[in-house]
Specification:
Blueprint lengths: L2 E12 L2 E12 L3 E5 L6 H9 L5 E7 L2 E2 L13 E4 L11 H6 L11 H7 L1 H5 L10 H13 L5 E5 L7 H16 L3 E5 L3 H7 L2 E6 L2 E7 L7 H8 L2
Parallel strand pairs: 3-8, 3-9, 6-7, 7-8
Antiparallel strand pairs: 1-2, 1-4, 4-5, 9-10
């Protein structure tokens, strides 16, 4: 599988605090990759460093063969990377449909509104509602859907199921499987191990700012002792 995203020896800092220590990671085109790890080990920092929110960084980040280390944050999406942060970033003064229409289309292949509403029926029902009047689960759906309209090649999700009801978690899992069938590449950070085990092709296990393991979903049963030790699952 050709690497769409290649991260090599990635280091990052918050001021004087060195938080990533030589992270190596590869995401193949069409893969769904989940980064696992306890709170505070650097998972979200890894995502934020890849997309360019954290600028104190060194190492190598290549996306579709292009060196991304010097690319400014506002050009990240134009290069094909879409990021849904944990806080979602829904605009309260805009309706659901206005939120969906706000991001620019950066490449061919993005979903139409009709396709988005078919994938997220809840959003069709609430399309005239202000964005922050939605439930937490509906806001997460909107945050994901907004990126899908743009035509990016890589969808990055930070804790997409955090605090959501089980029925919504199940729906987001179904959406990710549908996106995989469409060829979308997905990189996510997830605390919900059971959810992650149903959607991921491969896992990276993170501890203390480093990737300490990398294995496909088929090896999951044999890795449970290690996961229990590192994650407490």
């Amino acid at each position: 599988m050709a690497p769409l995203l290649q991260v090599s020896n990635l280091n990052a800092w918050y001021g004087e605090s060195h938080v990533l220590h030589g992270v190596d990671m590869t995401v193949g085109e069409g893969e769904t990759i989940t980064i696992l790890g306890r709170n505070g080990v650097g998972k979200t920092t890894t995502l934020r460093t890849i997309v360019g929110i954290i600028r104190e960084r060194k190492g190598e980040i290549r996306f579709a063969g292009k060196d991304m280390l010097g690319v400014p944050l506002h050009r990240t999406a134009h290069n094909g990377i879409g990021f849904v942060p944990e806080e979602r970033g829904i605009f309260s003064t805009l309706t659901v449909e206005e939120n969906l229409m706000l991001p620019p289309v950066v490449a061919e292949g993005g979903m139409s509104l009709e396709e988005i509403y078919e994938l997220f029926p809840n959003l069709l029902e609430r399309r005239s509602s202000p964005g922050t009047k939605l439930s937490g689960g509906e806001q997460q759906m909107l945050a994901i859907a907004r990126i899908l309209r743009t035509g990016v090649k890589l969808l990055i999700l930070d804790e997409p199921t955090e605090g959501l009801a089980p029925v919504i978690v199940q729906r987001i899992g179904e959406v990710l499987k549908t996106l995989k069938e469409r060829g979308m590449t997905v990189l996510l950070v997830e605390q919900n191990f059971r959810f992650a085990s149903r959607v991921a092709d491969r896992f990276y296990l993170m501890d203390h700012g480093r990737m300490v393991a990398n294995f496909p979903v088929g090896e999951l049963p044999g890795k449970m002792d290690m996961l229990h030790k590192v994650l407490g699952v």
